Amino acid sequence: MIASGDAAGAKEIALELLRSEVHQARCVATFILGRLAAGDGDALAVLKQRVSLDDDWRVQEILAKAFDRFCADTGYEAALPTIREWLSATSANTRRAVTEGLRIWTARPYFRAHPEAAVALLSPLRNDDSESLRKSVGNALRDISKKHPDLIRSEVATWTLDQQGVRQVHKLATRLLTSPAA
């Protein structure tokens, strides 16, 4: 559909598929919208405002991939304002689309060169109300620790561990760090 060059037609099909009760149809719709999102602000808005409300976890996984596709097509550095916007959204699914979609963060061009930017975006979510989001944040930070252990050690050393959510993220983020300072 995308290769046909008929973006408007592809979007129309995607919007129709989103109405389906079949999760696979909604997944296909989400993929299509993700391919269109960099050039179509309305497609990006549908992903954020409508797809993020879908109750099916499989659709949410595709939303994460669609968000990464948007960032790749836009350029990760150029997408930073949208990344920040989605990370501050009221919907935990929207926030998780970013944290999970950009994993492994340091495999993405901008964040490979600026891992500290990824840590700065992820760390404020360490005590989020959503357990699935906290797990995603902890896992993303753990991924970063593989190549940048000192960066993660420095970050978690600033955390107060008196809240259960922060302790959960800390445990996940530091799992691969061997130093007791972690």
List keywords for this structure.
mainly alpha, 11 helices, 0% strand, elongated
> Tally the helices: what do you get?
11
Instruction: Name the helicity range.
Output: 55-70%
Helix-strand sequence: HHHHHHHHHHH
Detail the poorly predicted runs. none
Could you give the count of β-strands? 0
Biggest pleated sheet? none
Radius of gyration: 17 Å
Indicate the mean pLDDT.
96
Q: What structural category arises from helix and sheet content?
A: mainly alpha
Q: What coarse outline follows from CA principal-axis ratios?
A: elongated
Task: Describe the protein's architecture and organization.
- The chain has 182 residues and is an all-alpha fold.
- Helices cover 65% and strands 0% of the residues.
- It has helices at 7-17, 23-36, 41-49, 57-74, 80-87, 92-101, 109-113, 115-122, 131-147, 149-156, 164-173.
- Helix 2 (23-36) runs antiparallel to helix 3 and helix 4 packs across helix 6.
- It is elongated.
Quick rundown:
This protein is mainly alpha-helical. It has helices at 7-17, 23-36, 41-49, 57-74, 80-87, 92-101, 109-113, 115-122, 131-147, 149-156, 164-173.
Break the fold down into its secondary structure elements and pairings.
Elements (H helix, E strand, L loop, with lengths): L6 H11 L5 H14 L4 H9 L7 H18 L5 H8 L4 H10 L7 H5 L1 H8 L8 H17 L1 H8 L7 H10 L9
Helix pairs in contact: 1-2, 2-3, 2-4, 4-6, 6-9, 9-10, 9-11
